[in-house]
Amino acid sequence: MSPTIFALATAPGRAAVAVVRLSGPRSGPAVTSLTGRAPPPARRASLRRLKDRQGEILDEALVIWSPGPASYTGEDSAELHLHGGVAIVESVLQALADLGLRLAEPGEFTRRAFENGRLDLAQAEAVADMVDAETRAQARQAVGQLGGALSDRYEAWRAGLIQALAMLEAAVDFPDEELPADVAGRARPILEGLEREIAAALADGRRGQRVREGFRIALIGAPNAGKSSLLNALAGRDAAIVTPTPGTTRDVIEVPMVLEGYRVLLADTAGLRDSLDPIEIEGVRRARAWAESADLRVWVVDGSAGEGDWRQARGLARPEDLLALNKADLAEGGDAAGARATGLEGVAVSLRTGKGMPGLRSALAGRVVAALSGGEFPLATRLRHSESLEAAGSRLAAALVDLEPAVELAAENVRLASRALARVTGRIGAEDILDVVFSSFCIGK
Ligand SMILES: Nc1nc2c(ncn2[C@@H]2O[C@H](COP(=O)(O)OP(=O)(O)O)[C@@H](O)[C@H]2O)c(=O)[nH]1
Ligand SMILES: [Mg+2]
Fold this sequence. Notes:
By secondary structure, the chain is an alpha/beta fold. It has 15 helices and twelve strands. Strand 3 and strand 4 form a beta hairpin. The structure holds guanosine-5'-diphosphate and magnesium ion. Residues 223-229, 242-244, 248-249, 271, 300, 326-327, 329-330, 350-352 line the site of guanosine-5'-diphosphate.
């Protein structure tokens, strides 16, 4: 029998209301002991006076009794809606501990919900994502995932694989009997269809992860072009040091912000140039590494410079990148034409006067929306999902190669592909995967 657990489910600190949850077989007796009477009618808010074992009144609380299995965790559970005073919450938690109940670990309520079949693993992850969501897009994606938008697709793929597997196994088991001539041949279109769908999901794969973790934008360019000024202007605060001294910024400075409802991670970087200073060399190395793995690069160019270091940037630029032609308050120099010749979409701005900034902001937002919005629900919102998809995809590819010459091998690869997909919804749940997933939760969830 699992131990009965309790935790404060709301944020700690002074508040109007604080909710304490309990779950496990001794929830009913604990409610009885605290209220001095049998648990109230199921799933209805009932006002009860709570007392400790010495009979001291702790609070007047709303008690909601949710007997299993139709509860969040699947077990007998209860919620105590207390007055949100720190001392009141403390005294109720103490009373529960005195009754022999144990404080819950992070994510333990949701882990029990998963173990009791109330949620699958992808849905349990969505619960954590909902709690962590800071933008509308993150919240929307998490709500969809909790509703099964991701799990349903994985289950449908698995069903298709199992259907194909049944055909292949029939071919393996009864090679000489009166089976329809070309069983393997009939499995092929099913497997090919699945392979296409999984490849498409993978191609789209980073979108869901970017929505959850943030779309990464690197500000790069030569020293003194105005990268740090741009970061500060976009972030709306002085996050990076701005000085007339070239080479001021050395570390990558990351600032999270929200653009069009999407989480964005903006990075200011060291100016790209050749240097003999070991600190600056390391700064430039980090700048390049960040820029290469970023989803978008904004090339900040000092448009007033006669001849700049735009050359340094060439190798890293990609067609979707943006150009910020800065210092438009000054006379245009030779560098501006050179930068325009790259063909990247450019916006003339002045960080000194603010001129052109609305245009740059909307160009940035447009890039983020184009990259992250889409009709289909993303089928990988965490690295864990895309790794499973990749594994399934390569097993499927191998199965298609084996199909004619070695049906047994093909069947085994199809089996492994379906197992890779099953890991996402936790149908096959290795303990270490579960520990990783649930350790990221907060206590009380
Ligand atoms: N005239 C003018 N100066 C600017 C503009 N933007 C930045 N600067 C100046 O250029 C210098 C370098 O700016 P900074 O943001 O530190 O450039 P970074 O080295 O690319 O990070 C500072 O002295 C800024 O005040 C601008 O639009 N016009
Ligand atoms: Mg700087």
